[in-house]
Amino acid sequence: MNDPGGVAVPTSGRTSHTHRLRGLAGTGLIAALAAMVATTLAAALAQAVGVDFQIPDGGEAIPLSGFAVVTGFFSVMGIVIAAALLRWSVHPVKRFVWTALSLTAISSVPPLLSGANTATITALLALHLVPATVMIPALARSLRARTD
C-alpha cells in the first residue's frame, strides 16, 4: 500500500493562515512598542513644558508609566481586531481602518469629560493621536500585504 506514485495530500490553508497571522502579530508588536515609546516620550515632553496630567476626579496625576501601559494594552487590542478582520472579513484593510479611526475618535471623549485643565485635555487628546498615527498605518500596511 506504499505507492511511491501516490497523490500528495494538499496542505490545508491553515499553514498559510497561521503564517499570515504571525506576520501581522509580529508587525503589530513592533508597532506597539514604537507607539508606547513615542507616546511616553510625548507625555514626558508635555510634562517638561508644564502639563501636569492632573485629573480632578481621581486627584492624582497620570504617571508616565501609565501612558506606556495603556498604549500597550490598546495597541494589542488593535492587533487582535486586525487579526479578527484578517480572518473573517472580505475587506480587512478597509474595515480595520474604519474601525480604528472610529475607536480613536471615541477615545477622545473621556479627556473632554475629565474636568482637567485645558492644557491637560489638549495634551491628552494629542496623546491619543500619537499611537494612532503609529498603529493604524502599520497594521493597515500589514493587512494589505497579507491579503494581496
Question: Can you describe what's shown?
Answer:
There is one protein chain. The protein is an all-alpha fold. The chain contains 5 helices and no strands. It is elongated and about 50 Å long. It starts with 12 loop residues before the first helix and ends with a helix.
Descriptive labels:
single chain, 148 residues, mainly alpha
Give the helix/strand layout.
Blueprint: H1 13-48, H2 64-88, H3 92-106, H4 109-113, H5 118-147
Helix pairs in contact: 1-2, 1-5, 2-3, 2-5, 3-5
Please provide a brief summary of the model:
The chain is mainly alpha-helical.
Percent helix range: over 70%
Low-confidence stretches: 5-11
Mean pLDDT: 90
Class from secondary-structure proportions: mainly alpha
Q: Number of helical segments?
A: 5
Largest sheet: none
Strand residues, percent: under 5%
Order of helix and strand elements from N to C terminus: HHHHH
Q: Based on the structure, what is the oligomeric state of the protein chains?
A: single chain
Q: What is the terminal separation in angstroms? A: 41 Å
Count of individual beta strands? 0
Net shape: elongated
Estimated radius of gyration: 21 Å
